[in-house]
Design a protein that fits this description.
mainly alpha; about 280 residues; about 80% helix; 15 helices; about 0% strand; elongated
């Protein structure tokens, strides 16, 4: 009886200590979460470190430490943490973590590895519009434009209001010289957000490729009205004005683009304005 009593005490101490350690780990973890919300990522990482020291299989601590590391551009560290989180979480719940790891891999130009992660996320959740979108982006970076367009299209089928999918599909169509198809995508992006300066500027670029310089200028006008510091739109509008013979207007726009920091403008000024 005495022997059984001692075993009971020992077991109680072991599990009691584990319970205390887990409670301390949770305190550090919650502190890390609060610091992350305040964008204090370095302090948050220190708290997650302590939580993981107390519980080496603390899945959420690995996940959120990965998020904090990604926020400070420590993508390799983030990938390590996401890998740990994937190791300890149930496979059916790992979809979002694969997507996060894929995003970090994109940031270190590991596009093939990113595609594998997004594919894993899609296998877990076939309706994951973000995973399709990011896989499309990674495919585009590898010049698989057909595959990229397919993924952006799948994103849109799942979520018809996914604005970036339209602009990125448009950009990909430009890569294969489908300027009219690109314009249709930019039209849709503008329909979703009429104050999207980038969509107007991109549509202007596509129109200029079709030599619709007046239509392009109208789009650059809208882009500049929305964002008066849009150096790229000033540059492009200046080039379109030059094509229409408006040298003075072109030079004013090119000068403004240069003032706003677009170094390409000065080469254009030398060619167009200083002859």
């Amino acid at each position: 009886m005495r022997f059984l009593f001692l075993i009971t005490i020992v077991i109680g101490l072991i599990f009691g200590n584990k319970g205390i350690a887990q409670k301390k780990a949770e305190v550090y973890y919650n502190s890390g979460v609060n610091k992350s919300k305040q964008l204090e990522y370095l302090g948050a990482i220190q708290d997650y470190n302590k939580a993981i020291e107390l519980n080496p299989k603390y899945t959420l601590a690995y996940l959120d430490r990965g998020n904090a590391r990604a926020a400070i551009s420590d993508y390799k560290g983030a990938i390590q943490d996401y890998s740990k989180a994937i190791e300890y979480i149930h496979p059916s719940l790992a979809g979002g973590i694969y997507t996060n790891r894929g995003l970090s891999k994109i940031n270190i130009s590991d596009h093939k590895g990113a595609i594998e992660d997004f594919t894993n996320a899609i296998e877990i959740n076939p309706n994951d519009d973000n995973a399709y979108h990011e896989r499309g982006y990674a495919k585009g970076a590898l010049e698989d434009y057909s595959g990229a367009i397919q993924d952006f299209t799948k994103t849109i089928n799942i979520n018809p209001n996914y604005l970036k999918a339209y602009t990125n599909r448009g950009l990909t169509k430009v890569k294969i010289s489908d300027y009219r198809g690109a314009i249709k995508d930019y039209n849709k992006a503008i329909e979703i957000d009429k104050y999207n300066a980038r969509a107007y500027s991109l549509r202007g670029n596509a129109k200029s490729m079709l030599k619709d310089f007046r239509g392009a200028i109208q789009d650059y006008n809208y882009a500049i009205m929305i964002n008066e510091k849009d150096a790229s739109s000033y540059l492009s509008r200046g080039l379109c004005k030059s094509m229409l013979g408006d040298k003075d207007g072109a030079c004013l726009d090119l000068s403004k683009a240069g003032e706003l920091g677009d170094g390409r403008a000065y080469d254009m000024i030398n060619k167009i304005c200083n002859d």
